[in-house]
Amino acid sequence: MVVGAFREAAYDEPDLTAVGERLERALERQLTREKFVTAVLAQVRDGGADVTLPNFGHPAPLMVRAHGEVRYLAPPERALPLGLGAHGTPGPKPYDVLFAPGDQGSSTPTG
To answer: Residue 26's Cα: distance from chain center in Å?
Structure first.
């Protein structure tokens, strides 16, 4: 359900903040109070050099630099997972990450 809602929202919405808000509304209709979904959305620009990430309560993705350095792409502030928006906290603040040629990113799925 989440992937389908994302595919529809990504096509229609102007930015990642609006996509996240639309996912939150979809989850409010579909999930019970005890369930939630963590997610990291990504918008890739400039041929992959500039990536914007809003993190909805997911473990921080990893960046593997071309020269072997590995680091977490931690968000500047924590945000609740999708489906918990009724608690009245603001959504995540998107943050930008610059990728150099050969760099790779990875997000570890949670159970």
So the answer is: 16
Asked whether residue 111 is assigned to any structural domain, the reply reads no
Report d(CA 73, CA 59) in Å as an integer.
Answer: 9
Q: What angle do CA 94, 96, 101 make, to 5 degrees?
A: 145
Number of domains in the chain: 1
- DSSP symbol at 37: B
Q: pLDDT for 50-77, tens place per residue?
A: 999 999 999 999 999 999 999 999 999 9
First-to-last C-alpha distance (Å) of the chain:
17
Are the CB atoms for 96 and 45 separated by under 8 Å? no
In angstroms, the CA 9 to CA 43 distance is 13
Domain of 25?
Answer: 2-106
pTM above 0.90, yes or no: no
> What CATH number does the domain containing 70 carry?
3.60.40.10
